[in-house]
Amino acid sequence: MIIILKKNAEEKKVEEFIENWKKRGFGIHLSKGENTTIVGLLGDTSSLDANAICANEVVDVVQRVSAPYKMASRKFHPEDTIVSVGTDQPGVKGSTFGKKSIGIIAGPCSVETEEQVVEIAKAVKKAGARFLRGGAFKPRTSPYSFQGLGKKGLDFLVTAKKETGLPIVTELMDIRQLKYFDDVDLIQIGARNMQNFDLLKEMGKVKKPILLKRGMSATVKELLMSAEYIMASGNENVILCERGIRTFDNYTRNCMDISIIPYLKKESHLPIIIDPSHASGLRWMVPTLAKAAVAAGADGLIIEVHNNPEKALCDGEQSLRPEEFADLMKVLPKYAALDGRTC
C-alpha cells in the first residue's frame, strides 16, 4: 500500500503519522520527490481500511499495490534510482548508473594473469569504459572447466584498479567468499544465483551496490522479486541486468530480451543494463546488440573484452578485442544522444 501525503503537510504531524505505522509493525519506505512524498507500507495491508487512512489530515491519496514486488516498483518510488559505484574512494574515478549517465563495464570473462587484466583494464579505460569487470570465481557448467583463480584473481583485479582507477565489478558465488570482497565496488550476482534467496538476503546486509543478473529461464516478475529480496533486507542499491534468456532456438547462445528495457522503465525505478556478450555468445553480434540496447534506453552495458580471445580460458568466442571495443565506444554516444544521454 502506498500513501501519498499532502504537499503542505506539517512535518511534525508527518513524523507522528509514520511513527504510528512503525509501532503497528509495518515497514516504511519513504520516497520524497520534488512535488510528492510517498509513504510505502510494507507488510500485510489487506485488512487496512483505505478510507480510514485518508481521514488523516496529512494524507492525500491511498493506493493499493497489486504487484508482489513493492520496493522495486515505480509506484513506491516514482523517481529513477541512481546507483553510484566507486565514487567515494580516493584514487578511483567512480560513476553512476541511471538518468542521463550510461555506465559501460568492460573486461575479461575470467582473470587469468595479472599482466592480462592490467593490460585489458588500461585498454578499456582508454576507450571510455567506466568500470572493470573480471571473473575471479567462475560458475561453469562442467566441473572440469576453468573455475577461476579465486582470491588470487581478486588480487589481480585490485592491482588493475590501482593502475587505472577503474572500480571493480566481479561475481560472488557463495557468501563464504564475501570476506575477500572488501575492495570490490559492485558485487555481481550471476544468472545461476538469481533465485538463491539466502544469498540475496545476505546481499541486503552488504553496504555495496549489487548487480543482479536475470536467470536464464526467469520471468521479468521473478527478476523483480529477486531484487525485492535484496531491497527488503536493507540494500536498495540494486542494478538489474538482462543477459539473455533460454528459448527454443540455438543460433545464439541466449536470446536477448530487448523489450525488457522499456517494460522495466515503466514498472521499476531500478537501473537496467544489458550484457550483449552472454546474450549472443558471438563476438561479431556484440556491437549491434550494444547499440540497440543503448538506443532502447538501457542504463549501461557489460561487455567482455580480451586481448587474445583465441587463447582465453573462458568465453573467448564472445569477447571483443580491445580495438573492437574502442571502435564500438566511438559510435555509442550517437545512440545515447537519441534521448539526450551520454556514455
* Biggest sheet features: 8 strands, parallel, barrel
Regarding quaternary structure, what we see is: single chain
What is the domain total for the residues?
2
Spatial order of strands in the largest sheet: 7-8-9-10-11-12-13-14
What's the CATH class of the largest domain, please?
Alpha Beta
Gross CATH architecture of the largest domain: Alpha-Beta Barrel
Please state the overall shape, judged from the principal axes of the Cα atoms.
elongated
Considering DSSP H and I runs of 4 or more, what fraction of the residues is helical? 25-40%
The topology string of helices and strands comes to EHEEHEEEEHEHEEHEHEHEHHEH
Structural summary, described in words:
- It is a single chain.
- Helix 4 links the parallel strand 8 (131-133) and strand 9 (168-171).
- The chain contains ten helices and 14 strands.
- It has helices at residues 11-23, 50-54, 114-127, 151-164, 197-203, 220-232, 260-267, 276-280, 286-295, 322-336; strands at residues 2-5, 27-32, 37-42, 59-63, 83-85, 95-97, 103-107, 131-133, 168-171, 186-189, 210-213, 238-242, 272-274, 300-304.
- The two termini are 37 Å apart.
- Helix content is 30%, strand content 17%.
- The mean pLDDT is 93.
- Helix 3 (114-127) packs parallel to helix 4 (151-164), helix 3 (114-127) runs parallel beside helix 10 and helix 9 packs parallel to helix 10.
- Strands 7-8-9-10-11-12-13-14 form an eight-stranded parallel barrel, surrounded by five helices. Strands 2-3-1-4 form a four-stranded antiparallel beta sheet. A two-stranded antiparallel ribbon has the order 5-6.
- The longest helix has 15 residues, at 322-336.
- The protein has 343 residues and is of the alpha/beta class.
- The chain has two domains: 2-63, Phospho-2-dehydro-3-deoxyheptonate aldolase, domain 1 (Alpha-Beta Plaits), CATH 3.30.70; 83-339, Aldolase class I (TIM Barrel, Alpha-Beta Barrel), CATH 3.20.20.70.
